[in-house]
Each structure stands twice: as C-alpha cells, then as structure tokens.
Amino acid sequence: MEAGAFATNDRRPEFQRMIEAGTSKPAPFDIVIVHSFSRFFRDHFELEFYVRKLVKNGVKLVSITQEMGDDPMRVMMRQIMSLFDDRRSQFCSEVAERESAPPNKISSNVLQTNGIDVSISCLSC
Length: 125
Known about the structure:
Strands 1-2 form a two-stranded parallel sheet. The chain has helices at about 15-25, 35-40, 45-55, 75-100, and strands at about 30-35, 60-65, 110-115, 115-120. Strand 3 and strand 4 form a beta hairpin. It is an alpha+beta fold. The longest helix is centred in the C-terminal third of the chain and has 27 residues, at about 75-100. It has a single domain, classed as Resolvase, N-terminal catalytic domain (Rossmann fold, 3-Layer(aba) Sandwich).
C-alpha cells in the first residue's frame, strides 16, 4: 500500500517492486491479495496487462471483497468488474473536475435520458 497513491497509473514504487518480485524467477510469493481489483489498478487494460504478467509466472491476483471462484468464468467476471471500476473512476474524475471549476462553469450532475432527469452522484471516489 502506498500512501497518497491512486491506482490510476503504474508510477507507484511499491507497486513496481511487487510486480518485479512477482515476475522474477522464482517468484517469492504465489498470490497477490488486494481489497478490490480497483485497488490494484483502476484502468481495465492496465489491470489485465499486469494480471497476465503475474499469471505467466504462476502468481494469482485475489480480491478479498470480489470473490471470483475457480471456474473458467472468473476471468470474464474480473474483466467485467474492472470495466465498471474503470468507468466509475472516469466518472468520479469528471465530477471532481466539475466541482473544482469556478462557479459559473459548473455543469449540472443531472443527465436527461428518454425525457427523464437522472441525478448522478459520486460517492467515495
């Protein structure tokens, strides 16, 4: 865990040390345990890139809050969940950008879908 670091890029020294160790021969561990996959990486493609690097070396990524099981569907489920995490991260970034804009430039957090106003909030971004 890196204080003040977000999982939006790989410019995290402790993350890089873990990946280096997990891809070395032989790896000093066979499982990386995370709270949720979004804490490992918020970007879907980057998550898959690093998961595949680890898997090639026999290291498994496990989330304590997002159980995937051991059947063949686990990869697809992880990918679907990471797509949602990726979009949520983008949305939260957009909301934070709007909220930090000068008052006359803040746009509404209301979307209109099929004539229905839908209020959007971003909790715990």
